[in-house]
Amino acid sequence: MQIDEFKTFVKTIPAIREEVVNGRYTWQQLYEFYVLYGKDDPMWEPYKKVKLI
User: Fold this and answer.
1) How far apart are CA 23 and CA 42, in angstroms?
2) Which InterPro entries match (predicted)?
3) Which partner for 50 in 15, 24, 41, 42 could form a disulfide, CB atoms 3.0-4.6 Å apart?
């Protein structure tokens, strides 16, 4: 099921959560993007590089 895959994916990139908290995206928007383009899409690259303290 894709929702479980998305949840696992998000846990590997904590910076994505900050985008939701800050109001830039909703979880629904991010999930739809994940379903349409997958985890290897360049959209995720900036978040993979961010290290949260």
Assistant:
1) 21
2) YlbD_coat
3) 15
